[in-house]
Structures are given as C-alpha cells and as structure tokens.
Amino acid sequence: MRLKSLSWVMVAAALLLGTPSAPAAGQSGVEAVWASRAVSFVYQGFTTHYSCDGLRDKIEEMLSKLGARDLSVLPYGCTRPFGVEPFPGVRVTMRVLVPASSRDGRKAGGPVVTAHWRNVVLMPDNAGVQEEGNCELIEQFKETFLPLFSTRHIRYQSNCIPHQLTLGTHLSAEVLMADTAAARGR
Known about the structure:
The chain has helices spanning 2-17, 52-65, 103-108, 129-132, 135-144, 180-184; strands spanning 30-42, 69-76, 89-99, 113-123, 151-157, 170-178. It has one domain. It contains six helices and six strands; from the N terminus they run αβαββαβααββα.
C-alpha cells in the first residue's frame, strides 16, 4: 500500500512540474512517424508584450516540451533592434510524431518509431502571477500550435482578461512522444 501511494506522489509531482510522465504500466506503444510542420505566427497581446527574441524563446521552449524535433524558430516582423515589439512574429519549422496508421502518417512515410502518450503541462494550475501574464500567449499557442501535434485529452481553462493579470489559466494535453531510445536516435 505504501509503494502505491508513493507512485501516485511521483505522478502528481511530474504533472505539477510540467514534465512528461512515464507511460502508464501496461500501456502499449504506438507506432508513429515524424511529419514535417511549418507555420508563421504573429503574437497579438494586450497584457504582456514580447521582444522578438523573447517570443522566439517562449515558443521554442513550449514546442520542445511537446516533443518537436528538428526545430527552427526564427523571429520576423521585427522593427526594433531591442525591446518589445508591437506584433512580434516567428516562423517555425519542425517535425512532430503522428500515428503511422493515420492519413498524415502514411503521407509522411519514413522510419517507424515507438511512441507513447504523455501528459505535458504548458501552464500549470498553480502558475504564479509572473507566468499568468503569458495567458494571451498560451491561448494563441493552443489555437495555432497545438493542432500541429498528435494530442488527446486537452485541458484548457483561462480567465485571461486583457490589460489585467488574473490567475486561473491552465493548458495541458497528452501528446504522442517518442520513447527515450527513439528520441536519442535523432
């Protein structure tokens, strides 16, 4: 009984830290392939403003958490050599895992890797006020980038009000991610 409660504590800690959790015991692997994705994104926010480099870093961090591979995030639309931009943008190219049996997977082809569904938290329920300033970015990220990944059980909640820092934004999803050995074989 004590071992069982310890494993629940470890799972809860992994969820709170926003790290991908290990596959559940008995969960079978998913055959997957890497598919190319490209998107241009312009951030439009009222509460928090970003420099081009700041936006690039935030987007790159979140895409990496979701398991993107061969990731390139390039700023564009920058009008100032430093400081915040009114509408900073990024152009993103990357590869993401898709089930090999899906239409997208058959189209992508390539070597098959074993993957599992893993919970990834992009903004935890207990985010601090500083993180909550990213609520507009989280909302736009959910709409623009999350559909590019194989996801399920998306959990999104937001109390985001322009020009105000409010608590209560959360974004997490189960994402198809390569097993450790497959990820090392990049």
